[in-house]
Design goal:
By secondary structure, this protein is mainly α. The protein contains 10 helices and no strands.
Length: 291
Amino acid sequence: MFGNYLIGLREGLEASLVVCILVAYLVKTGRRDALKPVWAGIGAAAGIALAFGAGLEFGSRELTFEAQELLGGSLSILAVVLVTWMVFWMRRTARHLKAELHGRLDTALRMGTGALVATAFLAVGREGLETALFVWASVRASSDGTSAPLIGVLLGIATAVLLGWLFYRGALRIDLARFFTWTGGMLVVVAAGVLAYGVHDLQEARFLGGLADKAFDISATIPPDSWYGTLLKGVFNFQPNPTVLQVTVWVLYLVPALALFLTPVGSVPSVPVKEQKATDEKAEGTVEGTR
């Protein structure tokens, strides 16, 4: 459940921050008239994400077992690719995200209502679709016949919405760079488990071989239905009897991905230091000015 909570928190907070930046900038610049189309775009993006998630969940139920496993495994791997890209992208661009969104809004304000809706929709929609896909894959991977995984995701998203509101009101300040570093690292670990589960799905669909080749089997030591087995399953998607291919893929993904993620970002700035400092101060003032 913790792994799913982390996914909901991390993904939801990114979307919440985007919404916070968009709304705060319009309020600060005296363009409250543009809030309506922006909220319309945000609502449309949320609706598309929910519809996409529902389509994945209910649409796959009509398939045969092999087809379900093939679809689930393929989408799990795709989800890992997308979330890995997102984690590294956010690590490099989070500092300039406010200035980038402000520039897009300025352009949309000059173009009209339709552009405002589209800007908000695109800014939030990508986060929503990525979240829906990864949440679906993760809940499917850690599902134990209960609603605990989904509850964990919803609690994470609810926490993210609350944190976003507190940021907007200026009632909460945290080191976002450190927060995204820690949660990003943990998310890479969760993604490794989802990737291994996706490989297992493809093996059960007979798309990949080696289903009978077990790397180890410690089911007697860590029973899947025990409290600690359930905890390991929920946090790391741990499986007590993985195949050799699962373990191989897990190691080949986790070790280099985590090493690269924890490597310090290059110190050479992409814009002059003074210019970036002014941009950051302006962005900070945007949020503070809404209080």
